[in-house]
Specification:
The chain is an alpha/beta fold. It has 3 domains: 113 residues, 3-Layer(aba) Sandwich (Udp-n-acetylmuramoylalanyl-d-glutamate--2,6- Diaminopimelate Ligase, Chain: A, domain 1), CATH 3.40.1390; 227 residues, UDP-N-acetylmuramoyl-L-alanine:D-glutamate ligase; 169 residues, Protein-Tyrosine Phosphatase, Chain A. The chain is 38% helix and 22% strand. It is globular. The chain starts with a strand and ends with a helix.
């Protein structure tokens, strides 16, 4: 618990309080300062940017382009005593108003103060990149867990696209990197529960909008980069996206950089801001170099060579692209001093929900793969792995969608890639939001058909999958069905809000069970 005076002092130290910009602004700052002075000892009991979560004694943050004054009014009615904003609101009359030049920086600073953030407690790994963040995070967490278990220490923490764990709660994630108040609450819980390590995915949005501004990463991993999240709502262009990603090194002690990534030299140049840089990849100059990749059945093995060892590792997951994610985790784990045996154990046992999950029909004619692939880089790597590891399937059927109002470049890129490497494509829903799903699908379909590939559009995701399984069942030979883009996500953005929706894994399992049941009925009738 902190006081209003302590919040004001923190914001002033960071140069965030608006003062002396112009006469009117000066008067506003004076009124604000007087209020803060009169109530400087008042205790702040909670901090949030969600008016629904406000309670007596709350410091409320007015953030976001979609912010509406009614949110502050609701927070005040629920007992908020102060608010942070870039402008003054009538709805906040009677509350202490902290008027700041950058509300997102202020939110991060206030959150760190309120929840008592202390660098290194727990030791924090941040993972960024266009593809592979979740799998790398799960691999590293599994390595750290194995090591901590041997020492009698508790399980380590995780903040990921799939789920969050802070020692107190294990919950489904709503976004890749939470807003600063939720993020600092997770870290505070982890510290209180004695967790010594926390592994987290860091999205470009989290970096651009300063959700992680106050954090120090003991290790920062940069996996790869390709054009993504380009839209008026996200990043105006690739330069903005790339610069946001690179900013992670400003708050990183040890940077782990993939030498095989596009723009690797620019990434290395930015990584010089870190205290130490280690590299990984297939590149001959990588500090952690992988080679001798071998695919035997459903298992993938590879060798990693560095200054301290040259050892073989084996993955429990399919997809040769996961070797790169595994080596990133190995590099970070070695920085922390994790024993080789714990690294091997983790990689040999770890699978990630919604990532390269495989399901097969009872008659063996249909294999379904569920994967989170949802951008150009992940599509390219997935199809490359499919052609290498599933060559026994003569037909590839791909089902995917594109989000509404954001990542607009995906519609062309994914449509063309899917069309080039599939025998049949079905475009379905994937977070259409307020945009018309049929219009999104029609746009994507145009790009698929440019390649000469057959394409259909079925808005309901479960219906699309059932239709494609029925189509595959009517064809001779074996078919591979790729259900892409959502993985283990349990919600879709439909209209203005989130709605519960079955995971792709569940959809695939149930659809293949229906297919098997129908086949049995046909067999019984024929018999």
């Amino acid at each position: 618990m902190v006081t209003i005076g302590e919040i004001e002092e923190t914001l002033r130290e960071r140069g965030l309080m608006r003062q002396d910009e112009e006469a009117a602004a000066h008067e506003t700052a004076g009124r604000q300062s007087d209020v803060a002075e009169r109530q400087s000892d008042a205790k702040i009991c909670w901090l949030t940017c969600d008016s629904r979560a406000a309670r007596p004694g709350t410091l409320f943050i007015c953030k976001g382009a979609a912010f509406r004054e009614e949110y502050l009014r609701e927070a005040a009615e629920k007992g908020s005593i102060a608010y942070i904003s870039e402008r003054e609101y009538a709805a906040g009359r009677g509350l202490t108003a902290f008027l700041v030049s950058d509300v997102r920086r202020a939110m991060a600073a206030a959150s760190a103060l309120f929840f008592g953030y202390a660098p290194g407690e727990p030791r924090l790994t941040g993972i960024t990149g266009t593809k592979g963040k979740t799998t790398t995070a799960w691999y590293l967490k599994a390595m750290l867990d194995a090591w901590e278990a041997r020492q009698g220490e508790p399980e380590t923490g995780l903040i990921s696209t799939v789920s969050n764990y802070d020692g107190k709660h294990r919950q489904d994630a709503v976004m890749t990197t939470p807003e600063a108040p939720a993020l600092h609450e997770l870290l505070a819980n982890a510290r209180q529960e004695g967790l010594r390590y926390m592994t987290m995915e860091v999205s470009s949005q989290a970096l651009k909008y300063k959700r992680v501004r106050e954090l120090q990463f003991d290790v920062g991993i940069f996996l790869n980069i390709s054009e993504d999240h380009i839209s008026p709502q996200e990043h105006r262009d690739f330069g903005d996206y790339f610069s946001s990603k690179l900013s992670i090194f400003r708050q990183t002690k040890t940077a782990c950089v993939n030498l095989d990534a596009d723009h690797a030299q620019k990434i290395l140049d930015a990584a010089r801001k870190a205290e130490r840089v280690v590299t990984f990849g297939r590149h001959p100059r990588a500090d952690y170099r992988y080679s001798e990749v071998d695919r035997a059945g459903s298992r993938i093995s590879f060798r990693v060579t560095c200054a301290s060892f040259s050892e073989r590792f084996e993955l429990a997951m399919r997809g040769s692209f996961n070797v790169e994610n595994a080596v990133a985790a190995i590099a970070a784990a070695d920085v922390y001093g994790v024993p080789l045996s714990c690294m091997r154990q983790a990689l040999a046992q770890t699978t990630v929900p919604g990532r390269m999950e495989t399901f097969t029909s009872g008659d063996g004619r249909i294999c379904g793969i569920v994967d989170f692939a949802h951008n150009r880089l992940s599509f390219e790597k997935l199809f490359d792995a499919v052609y290498q590891e599933y060559s026994q399937y003569r037909r590839i059927i791909t089902i995917f969608g594109c989000p509404g109002g954001k990542a607009l470049n995906r519609r062309r890129e994914l449509g063309i890639i899917a069309g080039l490497f599939s025998d049949c494509v079905c475009v379905t829903s994937d977070d259409p939001g307020a945009e018309c799903q049929e219009e999104i699908a029609a746009e994507v379909r145009g790009y698929v058909e440019m390649t000469g590939c057959a394409c259909s559009c079925i808005s309901e995701r479960a219906e699309a999958l059932r239709a494609m399984i029925a189509h595959a069942g009517a064809q001779p030979g074996k078919s591979l069905i790729l259900l892409l883009g959502r993985g283990s996500e349990k919600y879709q953005r439909l209209g203005e809000g989130l709605r519960e929706y079955p995971t792709d894994s569940r959809l695939m399992r149930e659809a293949l069970e229906e297919y098997d049941a129908d086949k049995e009925k046909i067999t019984d009738v024929a018999g």
